[in-house]
Amino acid sequence: MTLSNKEPVVAVVVAAGSGSRLGADLPKALVPLEGVALVRRAVDALLAAGVGQVVVTIPPDHESGFAAALNGTGARLVPGGADRQDSVRLGLLGLDAPDDAVALVHDAARALVPTDVVRRVADAVLGGAEVVIPVVPVVDSIRRVDPDGSAIVDRSLLRAVQTPQAARLGALRSAHERVLADGVEVTDDAAVCEHVGMRVSLVDGHRDAMKVTEPVDLILAKALLAERSPADARRHRD
After folding, report:
1. Which CDD domains match (predicted)?
2. 3-class SS of residue 236
């Protein structure tokens, strides 16, 4: 099943980060997971969900590596900026779509995002939500640290945020330009949109959309991948 609508759904995949914390000598998004680059798995998940156009922001001087990894996907490569925030802004400018298109922003490091999560996020914007983010419950005990010690935090009120995050393309572009002009630093696109007064809605994410950051995350990702269907493995070999 894919997105069943006549409105365009497009995406920016942020892939301009280094692989230093993974101990890799190449950009993190090009690190292979069972023989397939993380960025390729992320882009394939978006396309399988029905996303019509994908722009990938990449580090300078690595175009050939990304072009090889994404061969056949139709993804457009755009040089990223100095940080994630700027890379997203540049990626949004690289999309060729109307202002009312649904724009997803996804981290290449969340390579195993289920297609159902992608559809859920896009469908919520299509249904009228201003900004949509996927979340999962926090399972660890959390303590708040202050100068006088620490205190337990009620984790039932907390959610861990994932990607893709989404809004209408014109609104998302404007929000990023406003944040840039105001000199505000943010950690994700939901915060960008909240800065200009947009309302954020939550939908269910999935544990498989974990972010690959450190070597142990690759081990977990390989275990998750092993539980997926043979059809998934064949799709990435073809």
Report:
1. CDP-ME_synthetase (cd02516)
2. helix
